[in-house]
Design brief:
The complex is a heterodimer. Chain A is 46% helix and 21% strand. Chain A has 3 helices and 5 strands. Chain A has a 5-stranded antiparallel β-sheet with strand order 1-2-3-4-5. Classes of the chains: A alpha+beta, B mainly alpha.
Chain lengths: 195, 204
């Protein structure tokens, strides 16, 4: 009697354990096969993103601590790029913002370019943030001029999509100011340590 | 042979998971914004459904009744994770546009429903046929909805980057509401009403 009730309890547990073990083996195998391809496709995506901003680049490095890509041509630093997230009308807007390397020796911060990685804005309205007519407005602009024209800046908002436009503009302004400060600080520390 | 055809027909029309049973509506409504998404989702669901039906049917005589649901869930979750990782590795753009809805196939009631209601009580060949019928039934439904939403919402139809049709007039003034979540509800409700009114699907 006791024996059979133990048996009744143990069999289901043992069965489920076996199923989970088999499942773990399968998942481990799949993961080790696909891992390298997933890594590769992520790297390709980053490379493509940076290439869009700096078509002439030949190399880049990524600083995990600063969350910053530094772009090189023939070993010379030609600019910086980073990912920023704006909160748009329909959800987060993921942006890639790139900066001219001149911010290292110049007081002014010039934006090199901007592109939208992903978004969920309204089709036909806010969606236009991905169009060149909007994002090209940021190219070559000083960070202090990044504001909508109605606020005295140099960026024209998209008709019917003020929320999306100002979300992008505000995020560009705050993240660029912040990133430039961090870049300058880290360079200052480096040169101090070097001398 | 007629039994096979009956099982197949059951999934396609009589008990079409989306159009008759109204199961799996969450992914159907959420990812049906383009035909590409519909095909990708159908392929993923078909693979998981067929594999889970086969495995559940194979182990049906050994599975203790008390733990059958956890066992099914572990099997389905394993299969879905395999699909998810494979897609991320080889089809990164599709994986990005389907997003969270691939992992969510784990809790798709069509798959668990077929494991519990059919595969755990039937032989392997019948379980495969049932999975095919249900999977293709799901595919037909999501493809029709995607087709209508993409046509009305963008005014053109493109599959895997090739533009097939461009509706004159509509492509200049599309109705983006059909791409939005609300459009999904409008399309599916009108589709169901039409199918019931014309008697393609019998209610009750």
């Amino acid at each position: 009697m006791i024996n059979s009730s133990i048996k009744q309890d143990i069999i289901p547990i043992a069965f489920l354990t076996i199923i989970v073990c088999v499942s773990v083996i399968f998942l481990y195998t799949t993961n080790s096969v696909t891992e390298e391809y997933i890594e590769e496709s992520k790297n390709e995506a980053v490379q493509a993103m940076l290439n869009k901003q700096f078509p002439e680049m030949d190399d880049y490095s990524y600083d995990e601590e600063l969350d910053l890509y530094t772009v090189f041509l023939d070993g010379n630093n030609i600019g910086f790029a980073f990912v920023a997230v704006a909160s748009g009308y329909g959800g987060p807007i993921e942006l890639i913002i790139s900066l001219e390397s001149s911010l290292l020796f110049d007081d002014e911060i010039t934006i090199h370019g901007l592109s939208v990685v992903s978004h969920s804005e309204t089709p036909g309205l806010g969606e236009k943030i991905v169009e060149a007519s909007f994002s090209d407005q940021f190219t070559g602009v000083l960070v202090d001029d990044v504001a909508l024209t109605k606020d005295g800046g140099s960026i024209d908002a998209i008709t019917g999509a003020t929320v999306s436009s100002s979300a992008v503009v505000e995020t560009v302004f705050t993240t660029v100011t912040e990133k430039a400060r961090i870049i300058r600080e880290s360079v200052a520390v480096e040169t101090e340590g070097g001398t | 042979m007629s039994e096979t055809i009956n099982i197949l027909k059951n999934g396609l029309i009589k008990s079409n998971p989306v159009l008759t049973l109204l199961l799996g509506l969450c992914p159907t409504l959420a990812v049906s914004t383009s035909i590409d998404n519909a095909f990708g989702m159908t392929a993923a669901v078909l693979f998981v459904l067929i594999s889970s039906n086969i495995i559940v049917s194979l182990i049906r005589t050994y599975t203790p009744q008390r733990v059958r649901i956890p066992v099914f869930i572990v099997i389905i979750a394993t299969l879905v994770t395999i699909v998810d990782l494979t897609m991320q590795a080889f089809l990164p753009s599709l994986s990005k546009s389907l997003g969270i809805f691939i992992p969510l196939i784990v809790v798709n009631c069509i798959i668990l429903g077929r494991a519990e209601a059919f595969a755990s009580k039937n032989k392997v060949p019948n379980a495969i046929v049932d999975a095919l019928g249900m999977g293709i039934g799901f595919g037909i439904a999501i493809t029709i909805i995607s087709f209508l939403r993409q046509m009305l919402g963008t005014g053109s139809l493109s599959v895997f980057g090739n533009e097939l049709v461009r509706v004159p007039g509509l492509s200049d003034n599309p109705m983006p509401i059909f791409i939005l979540p609300m459009g999904a509800f409008l399309v599916i409700s009108m589709l169901l009403a039409t199918l019931r009114y014309t008697g393609v699907i019998k209610s009750g």
